[in-house]
Amino acid sequence: MQLREAGNGPTVLYLHPGDGFTALPVLDHLARTHRVIAPSHPGFDGSELPEDYRTVDDLAYFYLDLIAQLALRDVIVLGVSFGGWIAAEIAIKSTARISGVILVDALGARFSTNPREREIMDLFGI
According to the model, what pLDDT value does residue 109 have? Predict the structure, then answer.
């Protein structure tokens, strides 16, 4: 997997959207005041997806292991779109090393208590 790192200050773990790294100027801006760690998800940017990875949960546990392996503390997890879904899953599993979570246009998040209610319009169905 590829890992981009830049800047100094409080640590931000940036989890990219499903279309990969499209926000490089945003990362440069964040790196002015923060240490930014931006890995590519397993299976993205030419890396192979491990055979036993089947769900977003698998990616969330992968990132919890990465946070521990890098000995990060008080990390801010910033997830965009698909990365937001992963960030939310990370936060419900463990906040031991996390000081905050920022979700930007997160996929997979459900806020309704009615499991049959659509929260996102199905444009293809309409």
Answer: 60
Residue 111 has pLDDT above 80, yes or no: no
Distance CA 100, CA 112 (A): 23
Task: Assess contact for 31 and 93: CB atoms under 8 A.
Answer: no
Specify whether the CB–CB gap between 66 and 58 falls below 8 A.
no
Q: How far apart are CA 81 and CA 49, in angstroms?
A: 19
Contact 45, 68 (CB under 8 A): no
Longest dimension (CA), the chain: 48
DSSP 63: H
Distances (CA, A) of 16 to 3, 35, 39, 112, 122: 12, 16, 8, 25, 23
Burial class (CB in 10 A: 0-12, 13-18, 19+), 42: middle
- pLDDT bracket for residue 42 (50, 70, 90): confident
Reported pTM? 0.84
Are 39 and 66 contacting, i.e. CB atoms less than 8 angstroms apart? Answer: yes
39: nearest Cα among 11, 62, 78, 13: 13
